[in-house]
Amino acid sequence: MSVAVAPLTGSPAIVAALGELMIEVVAGGGSVSFLHPLDAADAHAFWSGSLAAADRGERVVLGAWDGATLAGTVTLQLDFPPNQRHRAELAKMMVPVRHRGRGIATALCREAERRAIEHGKSLLVLDTASDGGASDLYEKLGFTFAGEIPDFASKPHGGMTGTRLYWKRVGALASGA
Ligand SMILES: CC(C)(COP(=O)(O)OP(=O)(O)OC[C@H]1O[C@@H](n2cnc3c(N)ncnc32)[C@H](O)[C@@H]1OP(=O)(O)O)[C@@H](O)C(=O)NCCC(=O)NCCS
Questions:
Q1: How many domains does the chain have?
Q2: Alpha helix locations (H) across the chain?
Q3: CATH number of the domain encompassing residue 12
Q4: Could you tell me which residues come within 8 angstroms of residue 165 by beta carbon, excluding any fewer than 6 positions away?
Q5: Which residues form the pocket of ligand 1, taking CB atoms under 6 Å from any ligand atom?
């Protein structure tokens, strides 16, 4: 696996690449907030907003680059209320089909965790669809399963799926210091 993982900033080319990836993932049944068919304008609006939030320091949108090709992304949300400043959330983990199985999601998660610690976070949380989500990935990365909520979201092609909630202590708390 030789991809470079780095934060993304807003440019028309990056917004277009993220939009294309999200449209592909939603068409493939991925549970990332949207329904199939995802309109390019809606995908672009989402990523423009997300990258603007990243510019404000409220999140980090990481990209995995295979040369000049965007081969994956994950978002680390940092902006939580005053009583939850120690917490960050992983979201919008997506790898294009042709790049899957190369450890790219793993590399994205590891970099997100490193950056969470750098921001002083000690708790990571995430949720993933019960039906077709990525529970195995997160369990391999040391996340603890907290529970499942049935009928949490509509699936892109119809029907409902539950969601599985995960958490992981990171930084000093993870090592017990
Ligand atoms: C889930 C996803 C990001 C994984 O990307 P990836 O780069 O192929 O993952 P990795 O190569 O790092 O896989 C590492 C491990 O995670 C597990 N894993 C990977 N994809 C998985 C999936 N779709 N479901 C369950 N486990 C998965 C495997 O156990 C794998 O270990 P192995 O290589 O020893 O078999 C990718 O399949 C994807 O984009 N799916 C659609 C969107 C989605 O469901 N995102 C999750 C939203 S929470």
A1: 1
A2: 12-27, 40-55, 104-118, 135-140
A3: 3.40.630.30
A4: 125, 126, 127, 145, 146, 147, 148, 149
A5: 25, 30, 93-95, 100-106, 128, 133-134, 136-137, 140
How many angstroms from the chain centroid is the CA of residue 99?
Answer: 16
Domain limits for position 155: 4-173
Q: Whose CA is nearest to atom 8 of ligand 1?
A: 100
pTM, entire model: 0.97
- Helical (H) or strand (E) element with 64: strand 59-66
Q: Is the dihedral of CA 161, 139, 38, 55 positive or negative?
A: positive
Count CA atoms within 13 Å of residue 85 on its CB side: 4
CA distance 48 to 10: 7
- Per DSSP, the chain holds a count of helices (H) and strands (E) of 4, 7
**Per-residue model confidence as pLDDT tens digits over 51-90:** 999 999 999 999 999 999 999 999 999 999 999 999 999 9
Which residue carries 């400043």 as its tokens?
Answer: 85
